[in-house]
Design a protein that fits this description.
This protein is an alpha/beta fold. It has a single domain, classed as Flavin prenyltransferase-like (Rossmann fold, 3-Layer(aba) Sandwich), CATH 3.40.50. Helices cover 35% and strands 17% of the residues. The chain is built from eight helices and seven strands. Strands 1, 2, 3, 4, 5, 6 and 7 form a seven-stranded mixed sheet that branches. Helix 1 runs parallel beside helix 3 and helix 5 crosses helix 7.
Length: 195
Amino acid sequence: MKNLKDLNLGVALCGSFCTFTKAIQTIEDLINLGVNVTPIMSFNAYETSTRFGEASAIISKIESITGKEIIHSIATAEPLGPKSMIDAILIAPCTGNTLAKLNYGITDTPPLLATKSLMRNGKPIIICLATNDGLGANLKNIGGLINKKNVFFVPLGQDSPIAKPYSLVADFSQILPTLEAALDDKQIQPVFIQY
């Protein structure tokens, strides 16, 4: 395993609320490896309580694990790239909405602005996708981003091909090896897996 100690990593959560438990566990695993995690959340992820958890409890847990206040505004996300505050960004979970906006250069949420600021500086962008339309409207956005320099995907597959035939979800257990490969400018293979 590559030494990730002292890596300054932004970890952005978007609104795929059913994956938040895995995302929080990933943050904890990264902290235990010595990674300096800067938490970032989209407006919806930060403000919305769902059947998967109360927003205030999720925020409290992430801030307790990282020891940092979550970046959840455009103003606080803006300096991340220009001031080289983070070396790479992991969007976990990355929703189809965020994926589409990233592909088209739209930066209207904290995760998107942070990601775009790293993209312009050639730093690694790691996408851990969770979307119900990955094989539908968002397939073209996967194709658009997978072909871009410094953008790397956590291996993903159909999580429920019969009940949700267009849904794609990344394998959260592959985040660390994907991150390690991305830091060496490599895409982990295979990208598409079978659950």
